[in-house]
């Protein structure tokens, strides 16, 4: 196994530090995410990750959609017609969901359903900064070789684990990563790793691909891993660790069900 590069070590250290701060709640979660973002910019000489990557999270469709949905939710309380139309466009799949949401946002303000200040106040900005600040970690892991290192560890684990246990390990690793660096970043990071790992041990890659997609869709350990939880996290007044208390045990159930079901439908 090739040694970790300096950049990968720095990125893994940032992931570990973010996770520790989330658990201890020494800083508010959104401030932790902003600190990670700033650290990526400052540490560019060591990671080789462009500073632009650190702020790309704010342009992510996931972030744009969440901002728009906060505003549309506020608009529903005032009228509902404009927001109903945006919802129908999204449901009909005529437009990408974030474009439909943005269209509804603009229409909500343009028609006077909400004023610009009301639209601004409707957004839980701590949630936006939390999500946008962590998205670049996935890109940084890829750029620094951290993703390749994780893949090598999985291949090594295959030497002592049967394929079914390795499938469960991929699920758990994906769910944990999605709970820290967000599901969109985790999908991009883990699908190549999972498929390559399957190829290395001589089994079908499709079950591993399916497990990754299920794991990012059922990451309940933190509000970061599940966008519905993320949207209610701020307005509901929840603590970050509240989700881990319920989501930790819950995470084991879909892991067992998904792993066994996938192995039956798509044999390894």
User: How many helix segments?
Assistant: 15
Sheet having the most strands: none
Task: Provide the β-strand percentage band.
Answer: under 5%
Question: Could you give the order of the helices and strands?
Answer: HHHHHHHHHHHHHHH
What count of structural domains? 2
- The general outline is globular
Radius of gyration: 20 Å
What does the average pLDDT come to? 77
Helix content percent band: over 70%
What structural class do you assign from the helix and strand content? mainly alpha
Membrane topology: Multi-pass membrane protein
Keywords: Membrane, Repeat, Transmembrane, Transmembrane helix, Transport
Organism: Haloarcula taiwanensis
Subcellular location: Membrane
Summarize the structure in short.
The protein has helices at 6-24, 29-42, 44-47, 51-55, 61-78, 81-92, 97-110, 116-122, 125-144, 146-158, 163-181, 183-201, 206-217, 227-233, 240-265. It is mostly helical.
Features:
Cit_transptr-like_dom; DASS-Related_Transporters; 268 residues; mainly alpha; 78% helix; single chain; 15 helices; globular
Can you walk through the features of this model?
The chain is 78% helix and 0% strand. The chain is mostly helical and 268 residues long. The protein folds into two domains: 59-123, no CATH class; 145-268. α2 packs parallel to α9, α5 packs across α8 and α10 (146-158) packs across α12 (183-201). The longest helix has 26 residues, at 240-265. It starts with 5 loop residues before the first helix and ends with a helix. The relative contact order is 0.12.
